[in-house]
Amino acid sequence: MTPATFDQILRPLHRWVWRDANRRARKLLAFAETEADGGRDLSRAAELTRDALLRRLYLRHALDERRHAELFRQRGRAILHQLAANGPGAAGASGFQANWLAPGERGLDDLRVDKETEDSLLAFLHLSEKAAAGRFAIYHQVLAVDPETRDIFSDILRDEAFHMNYTYTQLTRVAPAKHRRRLWWARLSRLWKGYLRIASAIAGVLGGLLLLVQYFLVLPWFALLARRAARREPQGWFQPSRRPPQEALKSQY
Q1: CB contact at 8 A, 113 and 41
Q2: What does each C-alpha distance from 112 to 2, 33, 117, 160 come to in angstroms?
Q3: Nearest partner of 120 among 179, 161, 169, 41, judged by Cα
Q4: pLDDT value for 102
Q5: What is the pLDDT of residue 99?
Q6: Whether 57 contacts 166, CB under 8 Å
Q7: How distant, in Å, are the alpha carbons of 81, 190, 197, 205 from that of 209?
Q8: For the purposes of burial, counting CB atoms within 10 Å of the CB of 91, is it exposed (0-12), middle (13-18) or buried (19 or more)?
Q9: What is the pTM of this model?
């Protein structure tokens, strides 16, 4: 099963995630941070590369990411402002954010530009842009409830198509003999990191359930045992006299 097919199966879940206005605003703000972080990574890549063509492409890519971040940030804030204007309780944070179901473009992959070679970086970027384009296309489809946000994804998808094309073209240029191998290694890395993301989410849920079980089933028994033990403890070897100090002194003589 390909990632695109998996996303299509989860489309009803994506529709539910994005239907809530507050959750939609929070996700847009999270996407803004992810895109801004990607822009910084690409600016760093432009500084490190010795290839003049790649330097120009990385800088253009970085500018696109910064523009995407601003679009997401403005729209997220606009939604929150509208919710606040509708009522004091409308802007409260939704209980379930489902960030791992709708991740950003590359923030979860923890890219380290300084440790990447030219071809491995291009392979990583190509797969990241391809995954982002697939996700953003689904978000565009399920956002009939919010035409303004849907138009933002439509605008960004045009840039994602360019990013996918240039990264693959440049990968085949700088590594003509091993570009397929680089793509496979990048895919395996993304699959491993995706597994870790899902495992962490499941571990968080199980940890929360375990704490609830301990709180409602285990702790009451400990409290009951401690109360019984306190009742069985001796009251002490010495009972202080309740008589006035003067009478206690006379009794000694």
Answers
A1: yes
A2: 26, 17, 10, 21
A3: 179
A4: 46
A5: 52
A6: yes
A7: 35, 29, 19, 6
A8: middle
A9: 0.70
CB 189, CB 197: distance < 8 Å:
no
pLDDT higher than threshold 90 for residue 79 = yes
- 13-35: pLDDT as tens digits: 888 889 999 999 999 999 999 99
What was the pLDDT predicted at 103? 47
Token representation of residue 120: 């491995």
Written as one letter, the residue type at 50 is R
